Amino acid sequence: MQTAKSLLAGTALWAAVWGAAQAGTVEGTATYRERIAVPPGATLFVELQDVSLADAPAVTLAAQRYALTGVPAQFALTYDDALIQDRHRYVVRASVHQDGKMLFTTDTAYPVLTNDAGNSVDLVMVKVQERGAAMLENTQWVATEVNGVALDTEKRPQITFAEGGAFGGTGGCNRFSGQAEISGKSMSFPDNMAATLMACPPPLDEVEREFLAALPKVASFVQRGDTLVLLDAAGEPVLQFRRDQ
Questions:
Q1: Which residues, at least 6 apart from 19, have a Cβ–Cβ distance to it below 8 Å?
Q2: Class of domain 24-128
Q3: Yes or no: domain 132-243 corresponds to CATH 2.40.128.270
Q4: Res. 14: pLDDT tops 50
Q5: What is the mean pLDDT of the chain?
Q6: Res 20: pLDDT
Q7: Helix, strand, or coil here: 209?
Q8: Over 90: is that where the pLDDT of 24 sits?
Q9: Where does the record locate the signal sequence feature (predicted)?
């Protein structure tokens, strides 16, 4: 009986040690530049994501929500080492929420783990704009990232906003237009929009398909200077643009 108990105890200890050996941690701080106090009841949401695949949404490997009382705030995300592949690309993103509203968010990718990026990162978030459609009226933008992956094609998708949320543009080959709903920081595009149907040569066909598929996922936006980031319902960037004019 004693031998059996010892064997079970040894097995449990081995399992605990093995599990600990397989766990990795990404840690760091999150802050914002504005000199304003953290609102009461605010929370910090931090995610570790795999953004390697251009034709698929980011995969969340670890996430944690913290009560936020001040910045910079420290965070630590524990992940399974077995999920990490040397050739993949991993980033950490963060956002601050209060009463269901996103107040701050990262608007750039912060790489970790692979390509000599390390496991520590300091995140800087930007304030989510509240001016709504008016701030986008009569502006034109060129896409620089789709689903967290930088575009390197000669021709890139473009979008132009007119008054009242009207928009139009090109996916790099075909033209499209429609009416977006923009209120405060919220933004949504119609599932079906008017578009031409020309055949596109590679790699423009894949870029255009991914771009048009990303538009209906948009739920909010962040603008800082000449950069516009469109975010999904989880606060994750799906499209990033630079101002064209």
A1: none
A2: mainly beta
A3: yes
A4: no
A5: 86
A6: 47
A7: helix
A8: yes
A9: 1-23
